[in-house]
Amino acid sequence: MAVLDCLENESYSVWYYGKEMEPSMESYHASKQGPAKAIIDCKVFLQVMSIACAGDTQCQDELSLAHISNTAIFPISQVYFPVLAHHLTSGMKLILARINWTFFVKEEMFDENLEAFLKALKHHFTDQPDPTEDKEGDSEKGDDTKLDETSDQKHFWERHFPAKQEVTWIEFRENFLQDYGDRLADNFEEEQRKWVINLIYRDIFDLNKTIDKKTYETFAAEDTSKDVNHFYNRVIDYAIGCFAMKEVFSMESSVRLTAVENLGSFHTPGVIRALLGFLDDGDPNLRAVAALALGRTGTKSAKVINRLVKECNDEDRLVRQSSSLSLGKLKAVKQVPVLLEMWYELLSIEDVQLDLKKRK
């Protein structure tokens, strides 16, 4: 509670479930979705980590929600990260490993670490560089997920395909695993490694058997020559986002309803891409939630609209209904004739099936 008291003394407005607060925050207590809504609305999410928290599903859901809503996450703990890491899910570990932590482990360093934490918080609000970055002491990153630079100082494409504008997917994958297979093994279990590679193939390169340099550079999103491992780091960031999205939108999630209702607040490209990816999931419940969520984002791109039209032919009724509702929410007027034709065909099939039942 010392950290909380200090934050309030510094005039920060702090909310946590169960605490009596001023009337302006009472709405968070009044609703079962209050904690999730508070996470979406807050400027900073302070994740107090312990071994018990590491294994708690609600903590996992709330951390994932903070991540996909682009809320700044500040983890603090009285236990060092290597101890906690054994109890974290892969998704939580990846999210927290790439963030600067403050560890209040040594009692004699409490005041010093508290001061460093407050400075980092202040600089977050003033958009200045964090003065605690790369400083020695009881504050550190959970893990170093960035690879050491290669000896030739060239980014991935230039290392392997310097004279080519396109390569086969098989060649690209083999070289990617050659460079980063060990790092993937350190962070992911075998099935998850396969999933990450599939993400690259499906989401980044749209299942194309030929990979072109322009698509590669578009995903990298900036001058990759500045960071020789920039593409790999972008892939991991994207994978983390997908892990978080799956956690938030799963049927067992404690924050799913609030996330869907508030998607308009954080319709980032990563969220849209992940939702589109969920439409290929084998779970019809997740496909339905993703279809409904896409409508909530307010994104009217041709890719989103066309995919929702396609989902109106899904084998699952709930997915079809969710997709239709989202198209209505997005006011996809141009798609009305296409939908009417699909519905007429569906009605005709149902009439035939009904007639056959009557004859029996």
CA radius of gyration is 24 Å
Q: In DSSP terms, counting alpha (H) and pi (I) runs of 4 or more, how many helices?
A: 19
The assigned structural class equals alpha/beta
**What series of H and E elements makes up the topology?**
HHHEHHEHHEHEHEHHEHHHHHHHH
Largest sheet: 4 strands, mixed
Query: Largest sheet, order of strands side by side?
Result: 1-2-3-4
State the end-to-end CA separation. Answer: 72 Å
Instruction: Give the % helix.
Output: 55-70%
Q: Name the beta content range.
A: 5-15%
Mean pLDDT: 79
Shape summary: globular
The counted number of beta strands is 6
Low-confidence segments: 131-137, 139-147
What does the oligomeric state look like here?
single chain
Spell out the key features of this protein:
alpha/beta, 360 residues, 4-stranded mixed β-sheet, 6 strands, 19 helices
Describe this structure in words.
This protein has 360 residues and is α/β, with parallel strands linked by helices. Helices cover 58% and strands 7% of the residues. It is built from 19 helices and six strands. The strands form two sheets. A four-stranded mixed beta sheet has the order 1-2-3-4, sandwiched between helices. The protein has a two-stranded antiparallel ribbon with strand order 5-6. The radius of gyration is 24 Å and the shape is globular. The N and C termini lie far apart (72 Å). Residues 131-137 and 139-147 have low confidence and may be disordered.
